[in-house]
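Whether sequence alone determines local backbone shape is best considered at the level of individual chains. Part of our work consisted of pairing the sequence of a single chain with a tokenised description of its backbone. This step matters because it turns folding into a mapping between discrete strings. For completeness, the protein is quoted in full, as a sequence line and a line of structure tokens:

_____
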Amino acid sequence: MTLLPADSRVLYTLLIAGVAGQRLIELRLSRRHQRALLARGGVEAAPGHFPAMVVLHTAFLAACPLEVWWLRRPFRPALAAAMAVLLVAAQALRYWAIATLGERWTTRIVCLPGAAPVTGGPYRFLRHPNYLAVAVEMAALPLLHGAWLTAAAFSAAGAGVLAVRIREEEAALARFSAGAPPAGAGVGTGTGIVSGTATGTAAEAGAATGTAADAGTAAGARAS
């Protein structure tokens, strides 16, 4: 077994801490958006699955450095470089979705009755761009330092949780939004997964999840 230089593990742990901090900032933004939406007559839909998302993504961020330290996963430069490219691309896609949704992006499913779905930005091409980004992150962040067990286990678990999330989001979109498109249309609803604690982002459309966590939909806009 290849022994790790302690500094690579320390740097990786610091990276995970930075991701956790990023998620906390996103959570504050989401709560601000949620308050504004509710003040405008927004309605929260299907809150029951949200605690499971928080637990999943919090555990994910804890498991990444734990596996690296405990099982002494080696740092492989070629693999790390590939995963870093995927992480940067996923972050870019996720923040493009968040910027496109604006105030409609929340960590919970919050609907503005009668609001039209968002169809700009990445929603011109993908129905759930944020969840796709999360799926990539949930696989790539652990593999950045060889934590393949975390990548496999949490990608599988995240896919199950996201299947529930997407079903509830689509139902809320159909119920509350004006002119909701049929499933499969490239339109956004407002869900972005940001973990309610120090978690990483999640995945989308049944894909394996990525780093984070607290997602929410804003009435006809999709934060995914």
Remarks:
- The radius of gyration is 17 Å.
- The longest strand covers residues 43-44.
